[in-house]
Amino acid sequence: MASLLLPIAAAFLLLRVILSATVIDDLRNLRPPPDFNSTIARNCHHNPSLRYCGNSRPLDEIFKFTIVASHLCNESRNPNCVESFDKIDLRGRPKIAPLYLSFDFFWKFCPLTIRSIDFSNNSLRGEFPTSVLACAQAEAIDFSHNELSGDFPVERLASMVNLTVLNLSYNHFSECKLSESLVFRRFNSSNFVHSGLIPNKQSFAVKAVFLMIGLPVMVILTVGFIAMMCFRRRNLSLETPQLRHHFTTSMLKAATSGFSSENLEEKSDGVDIYRGILRDGTHVRIEIYWSNISTEGMRKFIEECEVLVQLRHKNLVRVFGWCDDQELRAIVTKWTDRESLEMWLIERAPPLKHRLKVLAGVMEGMCYLHKSWPQVGYDLGTSSIILSENLEPLISRFEFDGRNSSAKSKFVYKHKFGVLLLEMITDRGKMGDVEAGKAGFIEHIRTSFTANWQNLLDERIMIASTTMEQARQAIEIGLACIDHSANEQLNMDWIRHILLRIYRASCHVNGSPTHGRFDGDRDKRHKHGP
Ligand SMILES: *[C@@H]1O[C@H](CO)[C@@H](O)[C@H](O)[C@H]1NC(C)=O
Ligand SMILES: *[C@@H]1O[C@H](CO)[C@@H](O)[C@H](O)[C@H]1NC(C)=O
Ligand SMILES: *[C@@H]1O[C@H](CO)[C@@H](O)[C@H](O)[C@H]1NC(C)=O
Ligand SMILES: *[C@@H]1O[C@H](CO)[C@@H](O)[C@H](O)[C@H]1NC(C)=O
Ligand SMILES: *[C@@H]1O[C@H](CO)[C@@H](O)[C@H](O)[C@H]1NC(C)=O
Ligand SMILES: *[C@@H]1O[C@H](CO)[C@@H](O)[C@H](O)[C@H]1NC(C)=O
User: Which of 259, 343, 500, 511 lies at 20 to 30 Å from 241 by C-alpha?
Assistant: First the structure.
């Protein structure tokens, strides 16, 4: 810590005796002492990250910087300016605040020790003084109760990873288009009271409602199956091994206390979902379909169920059996206290490492299906993957169509996985336009990645941790999955392996060591390719 303070300490030791009452006088009258050059060189040797330690050191500017720093530190009532300068506090000082803001050379070299900057209640006018944002390490910036106007430079916030308070309340800024995603979600809304920026709460609400309606609709589309007649063959079904998975209407009735409304979990067009307990005590989820289907449709339904009950993997929902009675058609799966990925992302704002763990789990389930059950298709939408304990994702919607060519289907599913990954790591809300659809979303990520990938991230990830490098690597995998030619080179096992590796790196606090490793591995993937 001591070395961080060196520049300021040095300045004070130099100037302590000679400082006069006003910063203007000192800037006009004082000259660098003869050994100033070597003092600066020594400081930079100790701590090269000091902002004035560039290739060319403008001694004159650096000297002026130290004068302003000395005055500002004292004006900000820091207890001992020789040792600490951690806040700039010019609250309610309208006479001197604009003056200090005008010293560009000070902000350019902003001392690394500063944590908080408070210019509230100063009647400041005009645009937001962007030079202040050069203090990229700041944790709190307060410009509330001023008369600032124009656009606030939201894009500059991406690099200010430690900033948790940005108080712009009581100003006259122009309304900010990005407010919902960038500003509102990262900072507490009490930062923007009467600021003019006004976070667009409405669009957030619309989105949430949209997703909540989308969820039940997905449930309806489950296991696209068709109806027919049911047979009451309870005894037979219990005794014949092949029919072990066959449930009758009366068995389901018994499990749900006669389809009581207390057991009804969800009701939507054509599908009822009950929670039930089987005779052996197993808690199950019973999806009942009311639509009529043809005989042929029913034959297919049974055929598909016969496959589903054989799936065994920790990342696939467990299917216990089905009912194909005259009265009703149903699928019985294991009960999980389910939360869809979609809700998890919206409501919990999980950290990057948890997102990576979930993605690796999804890929593990996919590897299993493609190896052992290539005829089974599945849905990778965030609303149809559910989370069980220990962040194990469960693929829970299966379908049987369109899996004729294995190579082609692998491509399709890797592509879907890429979309899922990008949806989980980047911030779709930042596109501003929810209507743009999946294609628009992908195109947006693809085109913005090279120039500005940090801006794509879900802001809420960055606050939780400094795992930028892992996030970038994950996005790269997502992009490779959705890219037609790169996709072919990718082996599913490899994707899973790399995701686990990035996940592990993100569990260490400073994940920097993985940077080189990942790039190295990427070159190796061709060896593992299909
Ligand atoms: C300051 O010192 C460096 C070497 O430490 C030297 O290259 C540079 O010319 C000096 N500048 C001035 C203005 O004396
Ligand atoms: C530092 O601030 C105190 C008041 O907090 C003031 O009396 C003193 O003159 C200041 N010193 C300098 C060198 O500006
Ligand atoms: C703002 O500053 C003025 C002095 O300039 C002071 O009288 C007033 O109480 C301050 N208001 C707030 C809300 O801090
Ligand atoms: C954010 O804070 C951490 C921990 O205090 C520090 O290591 C990191 O350098 C800071 N980031 C920036 C951009 O200053
Ligand atoms: C903002 O944060 C404060 C404490 O930091 C809390 O009391 C307040 O409820 C929060 N407001 C909102 C809208 O989240
Ligand atoms: C921002 O400033 C306003 C007005 O001074 C205050 O009411 C609010 O609590 C502040 N918010 C935060 C997060 O500090």
Answer: 259
CB of 188 closer than 6 angstroms to any ligand 1 atom:
no
Question: Cβ < 6 Å from ligand 3: which residues?
Answer: 92, 94, 121, 145
Task: Report, in this order, helix, strand and coil percent for the chain, each rounded to 5.
Answer: 50, 15, 35
Most informative mutation of 91, 96, 119, 121 for ligand 3 (most atoms within 8 A of CB) = 121
CB 307, CB 300: distance < 8 Å: no
Residue 90: strand, helix, or coil: coil
Is 112:137 a contact under the CB 8 Å cutoff?
yes
Instruction: Give me 331's structure tokens.
Output: 């699928």
Question: What is residue 213's predicted lDDT score, i.e. its pLDDT?
Answer: 54
Give the closest residue (by CA) to ligand 6 atom 3.
169
Q: Report the pocket of ligand 6 as residue ranges, CB < 6 Å.
A: 120, 144-145, 165, 167, 169-170, 188, 190-191, 193
Q: What is the pLDDT of residues 73-91, one digit of tens each?
A: 989 999 888 778 999 999 9
Q: Ligand 4 site: residues with CB under 6 angstroms?
A: 136-137, 161-162
Greatest pairwise CA separation for the chain in angstroms: 103
Mutate to test the pocket of ligand 6, among 91, 190, 194, 195 (most ligand atoms within 8 A of CB): 190
Q: Which residues on adjacent β-strands are paired with residue 286?
A: 274, 332
DSSP label of 368: H
- pLDDT for 193-219, tens place per residue? 888 876 445 445 544 555 555 444 444
> Is 90 exceeded by the pLDDT of residue 21?
no
Among all bound ligands, the one having the nearest atom to the CA of 201 is 5
Find the length of the chain. 530
Q: In this predicted structure, what is the pLDDT of residue 184?
A: 61
pLDDT digits (tens, 9 = 90+) for 427-478: 766 555 545 577 777 777 777 777 777 777 777 776 555 677 888 888 888 8
| Residue 166: strand, helix, or coil | strand
Residue closest by Cα to atom 2 of ligand 1: 37
124 alpha carbon – ligand 3 mean position (Å)? 13
Give the Å distance between the CA of 193 and the centre of ligand 5. Answer: 12
The full set of domains in the chain, from first to last, is 5-201 (no CATH), 246-334 (3.30.200.20), 341-521 (1.10.510.10)
pLDDT of res. 205: 52
pTM above 0.70, yes or no: no
